[in-house]
Write a structure and sequence with these properties.
The chain is of the alpha+beta class and 322 residues long. The protein has one domain: Aminopeptidase (3-Layer(aba) Sandwich), CATH 3.40.630.190. It is built from eight helices and 14 strands. It has a six-stranded mixed sheet with strand order 11-6-1-2-3-12, with helices on both faces. The longest helix is centred in the first third of the chain and has 24 residues.
């Protein structure tokens, strides 16, 4: 028996074309969303379907001579490191402002010394690191607005254990140490640790000591070291060789960091960083003794008295304010 056949084209479901269409649509939506952000409308992706937010008058920024004209395309997150201990509560040992330029995908870091002597609304003159325990991120935001003329868009806070856990999951980090540093420590039998300039591998314990050591160093030096560690964490997380571990790192971050950032907002920050596999485009800014003068309160406490105009000049650079 003879069989005849025809060359028939199979018309399967065009998954490839649908996937391509969805990808292009997602890219287009992201572009429109970022343009909205640049015009001052917050919420990456969510601003596509949410209406414009009606804002109430700001009691500390509206009409204040200190208010900074932050461009709409600049987004900010205040990273907080909590020294929480069950018996004594906590203060914010780390206050690091992360600013992203959505036009250029550049990132700026600016550390605020914890001992800055500022006016906390409803409390009075106190160290800046006491604002959070007095009234949470809302009071810290009010304090920054009253004293320095800006509010961060978002906050993210991690405690000691969470910080160490994230670095453990990352398998340690390579920190570009700028200066020789030595201080007492718990990492060896001598009770004293020394770090030399250059790229140094650090375990979670090493990094924790490095950012916290205070017996032989200053608040300003601690701020610099904290920025070095943050840069090292970002740099390692985005290496191509580390991409298989990225889901574990992301899970570690989301389970240990308290934040008001939405997942879509997190992607707004992470995606631009992915362009810099050889090292993220991050610039550091520091408040020095020239802008925060060491002194004593009437009660005998060692604090830093801020030169507001000088600090605002640094904030302007960090936030791309012309």
């Amino acid at each position: 028996m003879e069989y005849s056949t025809r060359n028939e084209r199979k018309h399967g479901f065009p998954f490839g074309w649908i996937l391509l269409f969805l990808s292009l649509a997602l890219v287009a939506m992201a572009g429109i969303s970022i343009n909205k952000i640049r015009n001052g409308q917050p919420g990456f992706m969510t601003n596509l379907w949410e209406g414009e937010t009606i804002t109430e008058p700001d009691p500390y920024l509206d009409g204040s001579a200190l208010t900074l004209p932050i461009p709409g395309y600049v987004k900010t997150v205040m990273l907080l490191g909590s020294d929480y201990q069950p018996s004594i509560g906590f203060r914010t040992d780390v206050m690091l402002l992360v600013a992203m330029n959505t036009k250029t995908s550049e990132f700026h870091l600016l550390s605020f010394p914890r001992d800055l002597w500022v006016n906390i609304p409803g409390v009075g003159p106190q160290r800046l690191n006491t604002a959070l325990p007095f009234g949470g991120t809302a009071l810290l935001s009010d304090t920054l607005a009253l004293n320095f003329g800006f509010r961060p868009d978002n906050f993210a806070m991690v405690d000691f254990d969470g910080f160490k856990y994230i670095i453990d999951v990352m398998g340690g980090i390579d920190v570009d140490v700028e200066k020789h540093m030595e201080d007492e420590c718990w990492l060896n039998d001598t009770g004293w640790c020394v770090i030399e300039p250059g790229r140094q591998y650090m375990t979670a314990g090493d990094a924790f000591w490095y950012v916290r050591a205070r017996k032989n160093t200053s608040d300003f030096d601690r701020n610099r070291r904290q920025q070095e560690v943050i840069r090292a964490m970002v740099s390692k997380a985005l290496r191509p060789s580390e991409l298989p571990n990225l889901p574990r790192v992301f899970k570690a971050v989301t389970t240990t960091v308290e934040t008001d950032l939405k997942v879509t907002d997190m992607f707004l920050y992470v995606v631009p960083l992915s362009k810099f596999f050889d090292g993220p485009d991050i610039t550091s800014y520091q408040i020095t003794p020239n802008e925060a003068v060491p002194g004593m309160t009437d009660g005998g406490a060692s604090v830093l008295y801020p030169d507001i105009n000088a600090i605002q000049a640094i904030i302007r650079q960090a936030l791309w304010i012309e």
